[in-house]
Structure to design on (233 residues):
């Protein structure tokens, strides 16, 4: 039987094989900024690796549709960005963040990590094993993603689910007024080739510029106490 590390590496290779190959000769469209929201973890989980389904060496996995999220971090001219720290965070299958002030904490899946990190390789590639995001509250389903280089947060965005009917009325997604840029935030979840358990794969490339975002422009980071937990992001 494969150990956990071998399993993740094999799944990462399979998921990456589904990615769109090649780079572009002309300048790419920068991935649109999206608010961090008030529920970036204020207390990190015991494990912060790229497998959100298993915490450390626990036996019981998280509940949800197993999803292999992969992609590349690229510069505007299509060059891979190596050694960039990619972070993701999302609600569990019950719609609960790991933030201590998020609502419905009593329903939280204690086996779901909720947050993970991955350092891109020489090709700018990243990989996570997580669950397919669920709808919750007023929001459409999404995964938060941030890219850091050194101490600088280069970009914060959100990955949306193709086919989710709430996409058309989600205020944060539709705050991106350019239709082409907005469409790039919506990703397709496909069956993972060879999976006998219905696992999914999704590819999401991130394009960052040379100038990092200004955190002061993101009012979503003001936190749930000042904004109210009902206005989840």
């Amino acid at each position: 039987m494969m150990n956990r590390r071998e399993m993740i590496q094999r799944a990462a290779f399979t998921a990456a094989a589904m990615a769109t190959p090649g780079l572009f000769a002309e300048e790419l469209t920068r991935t649109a900024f999206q608010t961090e929201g008030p529920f970036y973890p204020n207390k990190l989980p015991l494990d912060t690796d790229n497998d959100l389904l298993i915490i450390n060496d626990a036996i019981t996995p998280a509940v949800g549709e197993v999803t292999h999220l992969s992609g590349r971090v690229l510069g505007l001219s299509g060059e891979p960005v190596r050694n960039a720290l990619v972070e993701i965070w999302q609600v569990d299958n019950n719609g609960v963040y790991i933030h201590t002030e998020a609502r419905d904490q009593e329903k939280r899946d204690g086996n779901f990590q909720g947050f993970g990190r991955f350092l891109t390789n020489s090709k700018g590639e990243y990989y996570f094993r997580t669950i397919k995001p669920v709808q919750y509250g007023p929001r459409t389903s999404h995964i938060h993603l941030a890219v850091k280089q050194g101490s600088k947060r280069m970009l914060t965005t959100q990955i949306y689910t193709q086919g989710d009917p709430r996409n058309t009325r989600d205020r944060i997604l539709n705050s991106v007024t350019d239709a082409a840029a907005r469409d790039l935030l919506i990703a397709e979840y496909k069956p993972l080739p060879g999976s006998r358990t219905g696992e999914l794969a999704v590819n999401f490339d991130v394009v960052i510029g040379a100038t990092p975002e200004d955190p002061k422009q993101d009012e979503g980071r003001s936190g749930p106490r000042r904004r109210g937990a009902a206005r989840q992001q």
Q: What stands out?
A: The CA atoms of residues 159 and 180 lie 15 Å apart. The first helix runs from residue 4 to 16. The helical segments are 4-16, 179-183, 224-227.
